[in-house]
Amino acid sequence: MLIGAADVLGTQAVIRAVNPATNQTLAPDFPGGTAADVARASELADEAFHVYRQTSPEDRATFLERIAANIEALGDTLINRASEESGLPLARLQGERGRTAGQLRLFARELRAGRWADVRINGALPERQPLPRADLRLEYIPVGPVVVFGASNFPLAFSVAGGDTASALAAGCPVIVKAHSAHPGTSELVGRAVRAAVQECGLPEGVFSLLFGSGSEVGQTLVKHPAIKAVGFTGSRNGGVALMKTAAARPEPIPVYAEMSSINPVFLLPGALTQRAQALGAGFVQSLTMGAGQFCTNPGLIIALRSPELDTFLESARQAVEQAASATMLTPGIHGAYESGVAQLTAHPAIQTLARGQRNPSASNQCQAALFKTGAADFLKDPHALGVEVFGASSLVIECDDEAQVFALIQHLEGQLTATLWLDADKDADLARRLISRLALKVGRILANGFPTGVEVCDAMVHGGPFPATSDPRSTSVGTAAMLRFLRPVSYQDIPDALLPPALQRANPWKLPRLED
Amino acid sequence: MLIGAADVLGTQAVIRAVNPATNQTLAPDFPGGTAADVARASELADEAFHVYRQTSPEDRATFLERIAANIEALGDTLINRASEESGLPLARLQGERGRTAGQLRLFARELRAGRWADVRINGALPERQPLPRADLRLEYIPVGPVVVFGASNFPLAFSVAGGDTASALAAGCPVIVKAHSAHPGTSELVGRAVRAAVQECGLPEGVFSLLFGSGSEVGQTLVKHPAIKAVGFTGSRNGGVALMKTAAARPEPIPVYAEMSSINPVFLLPGALTQRAQALGAGFVQSLTMGAGQFCTNPGLIIALRSPELDTFLESARQAVEQAASATMLTPGIHGAYESGVAQLTAHPAIQTLARGQRNPSASNQCQAALFKTGAADFLKDPHALGVEVFGASSLVIECDDEAQVFALIQHLEGQLTATLWLDADKDADLARRLISRLALKVGRILANGFPTGVEVCDAMVHGGPFPATSDPRSTSVGTAAMLRFLRPVSYQDIPDALLPPALQRANPWKLPRLED
C-alpha cells in the first residue's frame, strides 16, 4: 500500500491477482490493510487538505499533467500487467491509457478555464433603501478528502487515476483509493505514478494514498472515517447501496457518487427498421459483444414493435451472435455471475433463447454471448426479474404489440445511464419526440442512431442518471462536470480584500471568469 | 387544502392556529389530510410535470411574477393574519412580504438570464482520429415534483411561496407544500394566490398543491411517494434528520435539502475589541434579540480571547440584554423549547448567567433574552451539551486563554450556516486569515464586521453549510443558486435538431447562454 509517502505492507488477508484467461495466480501477494492504516491515510489526507485546497488552479493543472506523463512513462509494463490481471486485449488497454491520460489533461484545461469555481460577486450598495447591501462574493471550494473505489472493468480509466480521482484532485480534494482486488498490480503501478507526481510537484504527501483490502472492511472503514467528505464508486448495485447506507448513517452524512446498474434500453423505431434492419442487427451485436459486454453502457434491452422488419433484425442479430467469438471476462467472479444471470434468463418460462455465441473450451472464464426474446406483456408481469442487469454480453429483446406497450415499458424501467433510439429523422419524428420526452426523466444520456458503449470525455457528456443507475442523478462521473461533485459554495461578506481567497480578490489574480452583478 | 384546482376539506386531526401573544385560538379549523389526499396531490404533480417542465423560461418567469403580484394584492389581509398567527410585528411582516415578492422576481430574472440550464455543446468531429466524435449537447432539466415544508419563523419568505417553492417552480418542478401548522391561515391565503397564478397562466393544476396535517404523517407520506423527486425543508434538526432517513430508505432514494441547526459563531478579534468593544456589545445584542432571536443565523456563540476589552464588551452586552424588551415567540411550543434550553444552560455548573432581558407578565410566550458565559476549557469538556442550538434570543460567550483554544473550539464545532469575525483589517490580519481558512470548511458564509442575521437574496449568497447546518453542503436555500438543487444534467447525442429540446437546438430559440466547444 502507499500511505502518503510510505510504502506499507499490509498485515491482513492477502489479495492475489488471477489471470482470468488461465486461472493462474499472479505474483506478488498484496496483503490487506488494517483500521489503523485507514486512519493513518485519512489523517494524512485531512492534513494535506488544508494545503492542497489552497493551491492555485495552475498548480493543480500541472500536477494532473504530471500524473498523466508518469502513467505514460510506465510504458508496456503497465499495459502488460493490466492485460494479465484483466484478460483485456493490449490494444484496448492502450486505448484506455490514452483515455486516462487525456482525461487528466482535460481536467487540467478545465482548471485553467475556471468555470468550475462559479465565482459570483454582488458588490456593496451602501446607499440602497430601505437597507444597504453588503459586498458578497461566492466561490466553490473542495468538499474535503475523497475515497475512490476503483472499478473492475476499466483498470485504468475508472480506477486508481481514473475519472473519479482526476475530478476530485482537480477540485482540490485529496484522494484515498481503495484498489479493486482484481488488478492490484496495475493499481500499484499507477499509484506509484500518482505518488511520484505528488512529490515532484512538492505537494503534501497526504494528497494521495492507495489501500488494499480483500473484503469490504477497508472500504467501509474508510467511508466511516470523519475526515472523509465524499465517496466515488463504480461497481455493483449491492456494493454501491451498501456504501450509500454507511455514508447516510454517519454522524455527519456525506455524499456518495455510486455508478451502479444500468441495462441501457435501445428502441428500434419502425422507420429505421424499414431502412436497415439487417445492418442494425449486425451493428448491435458488435456493440453487445465488445469487451465481452463488460460496460456500464452495454445495450441489455432492445424494445421494438412487432413487424417483419423486426424479424429481419432478429435474424441478423441471431446470426451475428452465433458467430461471435468468446472473450475472456475480467474475473472468475464476474464470469460466474454472468453464467448465473444467463442461466436464470434461459430457464425463465416467458423467455426464448435466440442465440448463444461461440464456445472456447481451451480458455477459462469465457463469455459466450447470449440473446434472448420475450413479449412486452410477459415482461410487464415480472419486470424486476427480467429487467435485471446481467453484466456481460447478454441482451433481451422485447416485442411490443403497440406504442402503448412501449410507453408502459418505459414507465416500469428503473433509472438508466443511457437510452438509444434508432430512428429515421422524418418518418419516426413523432414517436421519437414522445419517446425522448419520457426517456429524459429516466436516463442521463439519450442518443440516436449509435450505440451507447462509447462514452466521450468532454464538457457535454453525462455518465449518470436516476437511481439505480447512480446514487445521485444530479451528477456525472465522466466529463468536466464530474468536478462539480466535489465542490461546495461558500459566500464571503464584507471581508477585507487582503483576507479574501485569491479567486474573490478584486485583482482576480487567478484570472477566473466571474459573474459580477 | 388546495389539491390542484380542488378545495378539499381534510378529515383528520384538526389544526388550530394560536395567537401566541394571547394564547387564543384563531378560527377556522384546518382538518388534516389523508394518505389518499397525498396520493392525489402527488399524482397531479406527476401529470403536471410532463407539461410544466417543458414550458419556456419566459413562461415560468411570467408565472413567478404573477405569484408575486397575487401575494401583494392580498394587502393587509395577509399581513394581519400572519401577525395574528406568528406574533410577529406588522412592519416585519411587510418587509418579509417584500422579500418574498422580490425573491420570486429575482428567480424570474434568473430564468431569463438562463445560466441555470448550463447548456454545453460539443459539436461532431467526424474526421477525428482514431475515432470520430458524436455531437453532444447537455442541458440541466428539473428533477420532478418537489415537496416543500414551510418554516415557522418566516411565514412568508420561507413558507408556502418562499425560497424553496420559488426555486423549485423556477427549475420547472411542480411543488406540493406541507403547510406549517403554526400559520395555516397565512398558508391558505398564499396558497390561493399561487393557485390563482397557476390558473391565470394556463398551467396544469398539479403544478401546485397545499396540504395540511397536524403530525408528521402527511409529511412522511409525501416524502415516501414515488412521484416525489426532492424535498425542501427548513426547521428543526430532529425534523430534518427524520426526513433524510425516510428519503434515503425509499426504493428510489431522493435528495433532501434540509436547513436545520446552526449557532453561528462570532469571533471578536483583539484589534476590533480595542477599537470599539462597547459599541460591539450593543450591536451584538441588537442582532441577538431581533425577532426574538428566531433566526437560523442568530448569533448563538461568541468566541474571544480573555482581555480587559472583552470585559468592556461583556459589560456593554450585559446592560443591553437587561434593558432588552421581551418579545412574543412564534408558538407556545417554540417558547417552551426556548425556556427549557435556557434553563439547561442556566443550571449547567460550568456556565455563568450574565444577564436576562425584561419580563412582560402581561403577554404570553415571551422571549426574555439570555446571555451566558463559560471558559474554553469547560466548553471543550462538553461541547455537545453547551454547543446545542437554543432557538431564540440566547447566546453563550466563550472566553479563551490563547489562540490554540480558539482553533480547538473551531475543530469541535459542528457545521454552521455562518461564522462572523469582528476584526481590524490591519491589526487582526494574521489571525483573521488563519481563522477564515479554517472556518471556510465549517460554514456556508463568512462575514466581517457585521451580524449574520441579514441574509441577502442575490447571486452570491450561500444560506447553507456542512451538516447539521444543512443536509447537503453543496447547496444553498437562498439566492439564485438555490435553483441548482432541483436540476439534473441530461446529455443528447446525435439527436436530429428538430427532435432536440429547445435549449439545445441549433437556432437557440430560448436565447440561452451556451458553452460551445
UniProtKB/TrEMBL annotation, chains A, B:
InterPro entries this protein is in?
Ald_DH/histidinol_DH, Ald_DH_C, Ald_DH_N, Aldehyde_DH_dom, Aldehyde_DH_Superfamily, ALDH_KGSADH
Please give the superkingdom of this protein's source.
Bacteria
Q: Which family does it belong to?
A: Belongs to the aldehyde dehydrogenase family.
SUPFAM superfamilies to which the protein is assigned, alphabetical: ALDH-like
Catalytically driven reaction(s): 2,5-dioxopentanoate + NAD(+) + H2O = 2-oxoglutarate + NADH + 2 H(+); 2,5-dioxopentanoate + NADP(+) + H2O = 2-oxoglutarate + NADPH + 2 H(+)
- EC identifiers of the protein: 1.2.1.26
State the UniProt keywords alphabetically.
Oxidoreductase
Is-annotated flag, keyword Oxidoreductase? yes
The Aldehyde dehydrogenase domain is annotated at 14-457
Class of the enzyme per the UniProt entry, highest EC level: oxidoreductase
Give an example GO molecular function. 2,5-dioxovalerate dehydrogenase (NADP+) activity
Q: Give the organism, scientific name.
A: Orrella dioscoreae
Q: What is this protein called?
A: 2,5-dioxovalerate dehydrogenase
